[in-house]
């Protein structure tokens, strides 16, 4: 069985390597060109250096890449969770959304997102991933994390996939080198051998005398399970119902071994009997089983089951072009390489013609040349500066020496450099206005319109990042129910990143429901979907809200007593929330004095009881 798995892994790796080879080679060329500044052909660079000619690299590409990447950093995509079926509700969706925000913060997911889009803009593709590990060394609780993949070339994906995300990947590899000493320490029984392969990310051998290449091999296989539908519209899988039956049996006093060995049919029958709910219908449904293995060329070092049904590697693509059934991925750099190379050539040429050209020679009568040390000055007058030059007296018809006038700046070379610069802007779609240069526009609206032109031409990169984060959110929503449901309480984050602790179904306390009973959230019940909204961060939205409210108060001063607390609450300075509370208290006192609010404990306007009033 292990041999069959390894043989399948080798075949899939070779398939991915062959089909993605062109994308990987182009990505390497783009990264070396844009990031490492290798923008001259090696033969031409060597020839010019031997001749002492300038080989300048005026690399404008990193600033263009940063323009797109930093725009994504300023407009972070936010994950929103929504209920889908009758077993889900909006309050639990808010809790799951707050849990996803906590996972993003605790795992520093912004670094993963920024790294992936940087790779996508530069080379055409980037990745980040979801991992599951213990919450801390002294705990059995498991936490989900969003981690970056620093080297996009270490990922080999299912090249038969056609979805925009990894939802239809059948396999994936994340490979890296591990020193033999570290491999023996971590896996003492391992006996690795070489595995020929690799394309651009590392040297071609999977193992040598110093290091061994270890691959994280993900496989996704079709499976089936029975699902049950109930009268209230809720639908549950057999696995979920069996887990609930086991928890119920344990709570009734059955020992763990008895519960573990009990037949599935018996567990389900007891669950339906105890809850008084029987399924109205059932059917077999197709699902998928995802397995993670750590392998070398001839061994499986680890094997674990992933709690979700899709591979938790999130691709961020650049521009996608499908030709003859093959997907090609391109970044911002691919078409900008030629204009950048021409810019380097013409700037080097103009530098050579102007700065490094010999100084203009002298026109002098042969009889006017001096002798001795003064003659040596004249012989170096076109390359060195001398305080003075002497010559012999003018002979018959002789003239004073004169210098040949400077030929001037090579206008043709400078014009070609400007043309290359314009071509660079046209190809990338990023013009001077987006880079902060002043134009002919005078109004703020016109300037913003020019800047939006560049943002529109590169928005597909940010949109592809949003799609990857949406896929990440769906993977997390699928696993958080089983991952966190055993805890009594979890910490979540609100949209303003304020922490809050909620109780789960095993604990007590929590938010109050309409009946006044403690609300316990069950994350494993119901189906939820994910959407992603791209926009400014919450801090930026607060600042914009404060400015808009202040503009409203200037236009309508009568609204100041009513909106004062909202303005202060959205300002970013210490004790702003406390100041907003005090302003709100003053507003209530003022309204009570005017008879618009009842005094504390008194009846409301027109005899209405205080409880019927809207909250202040």
Task: Report what the structure shows.
The chain has 18 helices and 17 strands. It has a domain at 538-600. The chain is flat and about 125 Å long. The strands form six sheets. Strands 4, 5, 6, 7, 8 and 9 form a six-stranded antiparallel β-sheet that branches. The relative contact order is 0.13. The chain has 616 residues and is an alpha+beta fold.
Q: Output mean pLDDT.
A: 81
Low-confidence stretches: 203-208, 507-512, 603-616
Euclidean distance between termini CA atoms: 68 Å
> Count of DSSP E strands?
17
The gross shape turns out to be: flat
**Residue fraction in strands:** 15-25%
- Global Rg: 35 Å
Approximate helicity band: 40-55%
By helix and strand content, what is the structural category? alpha+beta
Largest sheet: 6 strands, antiparallel
Oligomerization state: single chain
Helical segment count: 18
Region (Disordered): 594-616
InterPro entries: P22_portal
Biased composition (Pro residues): 597-616
Protein name: Portal protein
């Amino acid at each position: 069985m292990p041999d069959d798995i390894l043989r399948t892994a080798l075949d899939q790796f070779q398939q991915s390597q062959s089909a993605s080879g062109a994308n990987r080679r182009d990505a390497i060329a783009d990264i070396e060109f844009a990031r490492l500044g290798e923008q001259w052909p090696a033969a031409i660079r060597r020839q010019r250096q031997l001749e002492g000619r300038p080989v300048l690299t005026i690399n404008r590409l990193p600033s263009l890449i940063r323009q797109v990447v930093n725009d994504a950093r300023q407009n972070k995509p936010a994950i929103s969770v929504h209920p889908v079926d009758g077993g889900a509700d909006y309050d639990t969706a808010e809790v799951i959304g707050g849990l996803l925000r906590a996972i993003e913060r605790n795992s520093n997911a912004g670094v993963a997102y920024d790294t992936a889009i940087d790779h996508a803009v530069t080379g055409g593709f980037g990745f980040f991933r979801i991992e599951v590990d213990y919450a801390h060394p002294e705990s059995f609780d498991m936490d989900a994390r969003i981690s970056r993949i620093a080297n996009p070339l270490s990922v080999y994906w299912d090249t038969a996939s056609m979805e925009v995300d990894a939802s239809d990947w059948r396999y994936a590899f994340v490979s890296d080198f591990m020193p033999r000493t570290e491999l023996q320490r971590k896996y003492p029984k391992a006996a690795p051998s070489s595995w020929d392969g690799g394309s651009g990310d590392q040297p071609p051998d999977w193992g040598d005398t110093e290091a061994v290449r270890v691959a994280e091999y993900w496989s996704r296989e079709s499976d089936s399970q029975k699902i049950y539908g109930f009268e209230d519209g809720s639908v549950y899988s057999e696995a979920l119902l069996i887990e609930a039956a086991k928890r119920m049996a344990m709570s009734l006093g059955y020992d763990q071994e008895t519960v573990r060995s009990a037949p599935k049919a018996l567990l389900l029958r007891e669950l339906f009997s105890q809850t008084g709910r029987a399924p109205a219908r059932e059917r077999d449904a197709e699902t998928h089983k995802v397995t993670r293995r750590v392998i070398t060329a001839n061994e499986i070092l680890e094997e674990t089951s992933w709690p979700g049904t899709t591979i938790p590697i999130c691709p961020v693509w650049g521009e996608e072009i499908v030709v003859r059934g093959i997907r090609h991925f391109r970044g911002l750099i691919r078409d900008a390489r030629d204009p950048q190379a021409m810019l380097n050539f013409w700037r080097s040429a103009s530098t050579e013609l102007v700065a490094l050209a010999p100084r203009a020679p002298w026109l002098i009568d042969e009889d006017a040349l001096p002798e001795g040390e003064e003659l040596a000055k004249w012989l170096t007058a076109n390359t060195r500066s001398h305080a003075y030059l002497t010559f012999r007296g003018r002979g018959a018809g002789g003239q004073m020496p004169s210098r040949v006038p400077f030929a001037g700046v090579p206008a043709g070379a400078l014009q070609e450099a400007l043309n290359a610069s314009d071509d660079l802007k046209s190809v990338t779609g990023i013009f001077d206005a987006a880079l902060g240069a002043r134009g002919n526009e005078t109004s703020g609206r016109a300037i913003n319109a020019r800047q939006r032109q560049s943002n529109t031409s590169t928005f597909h990169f940010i949109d592809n990042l949003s799609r990857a984060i949406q896929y990440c959110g769906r993977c997390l929503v699928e696993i958080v129910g089983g991952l966190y449901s055993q805890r009594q309480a979890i910490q979540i984050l609100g949209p303003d990143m304020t922490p809050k602790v909620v109780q789960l179904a095993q604990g007590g306390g929590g938010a109050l429901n309409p009946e006044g009973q403690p609300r316990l959230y069950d994350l494993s019940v119901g189906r939820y979907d994910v959407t992603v909204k791209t926009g400014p961060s919450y801090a930026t939205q607060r600042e914009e809200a404060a400015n808009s409210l202040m503009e409203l108060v200037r236009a309508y001063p009568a609204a100041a007593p009513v909106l004062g607390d909202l303005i202060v609450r959205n300002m970013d300075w210490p004790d702003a929330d406390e100041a907003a509370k005090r302003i709100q208290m003053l507003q209530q006192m003022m309204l009570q004095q005017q008879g618009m609010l009842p005094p504390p404990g008194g009846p409301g306007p027109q005899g209405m009881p205080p409880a019927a009033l809207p909250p202040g």
